[in-house]
Design brief:
By secondary structure, the protein is α/β, with parallel strands linked by helices. Helices cover about 40% and strands about 20% of the residues. The strands form four sheets. A seven-stranded parallel sheet has the order 3-2-1-4-5-6-11, sandwiched between helices. Helix 2 links the parallel strand 2 and strand 3. The radius of gyration is 19 Å and the shape is globular. The N and C termini lie far apart (about 40 Å). Bound molecules: uridine-diphosphate-N-acetylglucosamine. The site of uridine-diphosphate-N-acetylglucosamine (UD1) has 23 residues, from helix 6, helix 7 and strand 8. The site of uridine-diphosphate-N-acetylglucosamine has 23 residues, from helix 6, helix 7 and strand 8.
Length: about 350
């Protein structure tokens, strides 16, 4: 498997994965519609790797555009990152989310089938577990009961992929359930740059560090956790991206199959712990205010990633200190955008 189509190649996870794919000598064909990413990311990937993605500006709902890409290139495997991911927005605009996150995958799968390309790595999320009954969460834990349309869109696609595999065992499908990716490439060239006011913790902390925002709102300090604030499994974007190389190798080896893996570190950190480590590593103060709990938030969520370790030989190696340092470095390098 040499020719990899990456959808959403300029986004946060897509761009980092492209870097490691190129460094591992894969030919990367990328598509993006820049709905939540920037064109300049393409140049930055080239600066880091010295290599180029064969890029197509294309929307995943554009069947003709997709057909053109598959006609132009002998694609071996698709990694599908292209999706909307803002939880709050998904509550306000559910139809937009189901069209963009579900219909687009259906179009992609149909086009893949037409071109006899049946290998796919799909970006899912720990959000499919809804409110976890136990932690750490392993892949056998129940999914569904998602708390927002974004999460439900991922849950639906997982089920569609399962049905697809049941209907035709020639498919090889790997679903990755990401926990909380943070950090950035150590070059400081690419990182998480959400449009508008960030909903996620680390991009918000960076806005406070850059003094664009005065303080961080901590959503609740009365959870049943170490210090009352929410606990999550933060994973360095580098570790997360590299898992996709392991996924390709797995699908190549097994020829066909349906696989699901959690990608996390297995360690939970609270919001206050993150703030303290961020301040210490970067020698910068992050003023905080305790605010009400955020609707739909859960108390504790962290992964059991043993399956990925055993079956993919993958393990997260970067520490929270690394994640905080690299996130900050990205902000410093891109001050104009913060
Ligand atoms: C959320 C989504 C998840 C998505 C993930 C990454 C839900 C239920 N889950 O996860 O589907 O995959 O983002 O995009 O919404 N926090 C603050 N102040 C802030 C921001 C966050 O205190 O300004 C706290 C939150 O309450 C939480 C922790 O920080 O305890 C992490 O929040 P966040 O980064 O938004 O990720 P999740 O809610 O875990």
């Amino acid at each position: 498997m040499k020719n990899i189509l990456v959808t959403g190649c300029c986004g946060y996870i897509g761009s980092h994965t492209c870097v490691y794919l190129l460094q591992e000598n894969y030919n990367v064909i990328g598509l993006d519609n820049f709905s939540n990413s920037k064109r300049e990311v393409l140049d930055k990937i080239t600066i880091i790797t010295g290599k180029k993605i064969k890029f197509y500006e294309c929307d995943m709902l554009d069947r003709d555009g997709l057909n053109r890409i598959f006609n132009d290139n002998k694609i071996d495997l698709v990694i599908d990152f292209a999706a909307y991911k803002a939880v709050g927005d998904s509550v306000i605009n559910p139809v937009k989310y189901y069209i963009n996150n579900v219909s687009s995958v259906l179009t992609l799968l149909d086009v893949m089938k037409d071109h006899n390309v049946k290998s796919l790595i799909f970006s899912s999320s720990a959000t499919v577990y809804g409110i976890p009954k136990v932690v750490p969460i392993n892949e056998e834990c129940e999914t569904g009961f998602t708390t927002n349309p974004y999460g439900t869109s991922k849950y639906y696609v997982e089920n569609i992929l399962n049905d697809l595999y049941k209907s035709d065992n020639n498919w090889s499908i790997c679903i990755f359930r990401y926990f909380n990716p943070i950090g950035a490439h150590p070059s400081g060239l690419i990182g998480d740059e959400p449009n508008g006011i960030p909903a996620n913790l680390m991009p918000y902390i960076l806005k406070v560090a850059s003094r664009e925002f005065e303080f961080l709102n901590i959503f609740g300090n009365d959870y049943d956790t170490v210090d009352g604030t929410g606990v999550r499994d933060y994973i360095h974007i580098i570790d997360l991206s590299k898992a996709h190389i392991c996924g390709i190798k797995k699908l190549e080896k097994e020829k066909s199959g349906f696989y699901i893996y959690n990608l996390g570190t297995g360690i939970g950190y609270s919001v206050l712990e993150i703030v303290k480590i961020f301040e210490k590593v970067n020698k910068v103060e992050i003023p905080i205010k305790i605010a009400n709990r955020r609707d739909g938030d859960i108390s504790i969520c962290y992964a059991d990633s043993t399956k990925a370790k055993n079956e993919l030989n993958w393990k997260a190696i970067y520490s929270l200190e690394d994640m905080c340092r690299d996130s900050y470095n990205f902000m410093i390098n891109n001050k104009n955008n913060f």
